[in-house]
Amino acid sequence: MSNSLQLKAIITLRAMENQKINWVIRDEPLNDDDSGWQLYFGDEDEDYLENFDNSTLITLENVLLFEPKLAKAFASEHNAFEWDEASKEFVELEGYEEGEES
After folding, report:
1. Which pTM was predicted?
2. Residue 102 lies in a domain
3. How high is the pLDDT of residue 52?
4. Domain tally for the chain?
5. Residue 1 pLDDT > 50, yes or no?
6. What confidence score (pLDDT) does residue 95 get?
């Protein structure tokens, strides 16, 4: 998994500024450097998400520096997870299909 940790993900500035991720989805990677992961704080609205200035790229390795519990999600075959406050873990979201809008 070490090489895969250099792959990039899209992260919203809201998640980056708060150093907190509550919702993640994976779509088909766009290129060899893309992991396909998209990382959200969780309260971003459609207008926020449509503005590309509100997101940036980050390596999976750097994500794990502030959110190590995402390692299981990144290694999983499942495509969507959300933070569960009760269990203090990321849990699989059922019913997410690749290409769905948030």
Report:
1. 0.89
2. no
3. 95
4. 1
5. no
6. 79
What six digits make up the tokens of 43?
């309260």
Please say if the pLDDT value at position 34 is more than 70.
Answer: yes
Report the distance separating Cα 49 and Cα 5, nearest Å: 25
Tell me the residue range of the domain where 72 lies: 3-87
The three-point CA angle 17-74-27 to 5° equals 85
- Residue 79 C-beta-side C-alpha neighbours within 13 Å: 12
Burial bucket for residue 78 (CB in 10 Å: 0-12, 13-18, 19+): middle
C-alpha separations of 42 from 2, 16, 18, 102 in Å: 28, 12, 11, 10
Alpha carbons 93 and 31: distance in angstroms, whole number: 25
